[in-house]
Write a structure and sequence with these properties.
Shape of chain A: elongated
CATH architecture of chain A: 3-Layer(aba) Sandwich
Oligomer: heterodimer
Number of helices of chain B: 20
CATH superfamily of the domain at 43-294 in chain B: NagB/RpiA/CoA transferase-like
Structural class of chain A: alpha/beta
Number of strands of chain B: 12
Distance between the termini of chain A: 68 Å
Radius of gyration of chain B: 26 Å
Strand order of the largest sheet of chain B: 1-10-7-4-2-3
CATH topology of chain A: Rossmann fold
Amino acid sequence: MTDLATFLGRVRDALGTTRRRGDAATRRADGYRFQVDAMRQRAAAQWQELWARFAKELEAVGGQGHRAADADGAAATIAALASQRAASKLVTWDLAALGLGSVAESLRGQGFEVQTTSPPRADAADPAARARIRAALAEADLGITGADYAVAETGSLLLISGEGRSRLVSLLPRVHVALIRPEHLVPAIRDLGAILEVEHREGRAADASCLNLITGPSRSADIEFVLARGVHGPGEVHVILIG
Amino acid sequence: MPSAVEAFLERSRAAVRDTFLQTALDRATSRLMTARANGFASLPDADAMRDRAKAIKEETVARLDHYLARLAESVEGAGGHVHWAADADETRQIVLRLAREKGVRSIVKSKSMASEEIHLNAALEAAGFRVVETDLGEYIVQIAQEPPSHIIAPAIHKTKEQIAELFSGVAGRALPADPDQLTAWARAKLREEFIQADMGISGANFAVAETGTIVLVTNEGNGRLVTTMPRIHVAVMGMEKVIPALADLPVFLEVLARSATGQKMSVYTTLVRGPRRAGEVDGPDEFHLVIMDNGRRSALGTHLEESLQCLRCGSCLNVCPVYGEVGGHAYGTVYPGPIGIIVSNYIGGHGHTQNLGAASTLCSACLDACPVRIDIPRMLLGLREEAQAKSEVPWAERMAFRMMAKVMASPSLYRMAVAAGRKLLLPFVRNGRVESLPGKLGGWTRFRTLPPIAKKTFRERWREMEKDPHRD
């Protein structure tokens, strides 16, 4: 008979000491990435159904879904929304970084005042520059962002903060417009567990101060249970699917 | 000073006579209950989700020291600062010191039961800071100088006319009693407060140990503003709010909003982690997390430990027949309703001075409604036992129950007691009902009549039927 210490000692000796030993956390990270990859493959194959569900759920919570063939189409939709609401001042994330720089250009061309909230890095560190951006945000009528994920089950958008991705663009103006592509659609809230793990370990969330999962317009029922929209955040949320 | 029970009864009598409060409570609790049922209808595996949520909470509380250490390490790793507060006073001192050291003048707050629990606003105001609650309901009760009356709907006891009057007082002009217009006024007014505030104070629905992420679940957006606009963000959390990893979060999100308001998801689920990063244009310069014990430790290892799994969704309030009649203020504690009765026993370190275990019917509706299946009735019974053991129950009542226990334990004594009871009740029977009982027993017949004891007991009838099966 052999005791535990002797048995394990022999195994350890045979493994040697030079070998790199991966730990459980690393393997767990691989597991999450595997889950997310598999989920995204399934989602990509059925994005049209996911979009239909997303739009339906978004409408159920008081938001609205739109489709556009390309960036020009998205700009036209935003221009129409802004005109109907007499909104002239627009603020945006760094749309160029999302490959949608032409949306901002097109809106400027149509006479809207479009302010991006993505100064050079040095300026972001300067309180005076940030104060100027905040003043523009406070005055803006409509904010345009991208989104990192769009959850079909609930009509929710996941926005991760960062350079060129102000937290306030989706918060201060009365109208929030988010631009997404089919690859942003994911099926369900429960998929977010693995997504958050992967984003935190190796994605955009690794060095972000804030993530927001946004499900429709701001609301309250604090006065006699009467539903009021746009209490502190936007009273309207529009999501434009490009593609 | 009246006992907690006497004070509860006194406030309850007033609440039951308050016709508007009764209407408001009926409306709020019935709407929230219906909403909850609809919300869960869209979650086919709700039971599995609730079991999972409970398992995670159980596991976390069992290793609370480990997860709290991990949380602190992660928050600091993300550039935040961690403060440990043993009690309410330490928590207040930490926030006050931060506010003084950082030259703060104006503070905005998002809804936080943790800060209600330690009366943080009063302490900050006494020290000369301007403090504004920004959740619409909390703002209303702050102007009215009242405590909230429901965990998730703080101002349900106010009419729109009363709210219009309160807001008009602040605005300096008459505002109409219209919820939309009142909300619009509050949005504009509170926006000014956000812009000038130096410090934002929030609570935390969850704190993720592995990443140092603080999670806030809100509907209005004030939680986002409080954590983004001021240059300092301070989050105050009860130490039981920690969960192990981000992967655990969706399970709670699936059940939390459904339980609280019937929504599939609240409008904003905000995950904040440390201060503003290089390249970001907004977010605070500094992030501070205050981890508060304040009596929670004393529940560990006791029959009340399970209550540390509470998500503060308020669903046990909505289904409770007692809360539904008396409302939140009757309890006289920061946390009302069934879960409030339990946590008030240890929060604040009062050490069982607030034993309202009897202010319940033990109907178990709270257990059915709880998203993490906290066995509230078990703990309420435990509290009743404690009250009994500590002689908080009157002598006559204790003797009566002791005798009853003897009688119930012995078949022959029981039979004798039934026979005697049948005779003793006879003089009080009118029209086939016991309409009023004398003395202390009168409480039983004050609002209802009782059936008299049947002429024959079940056992007697059974014996007769065995002798003659055809007899009716």
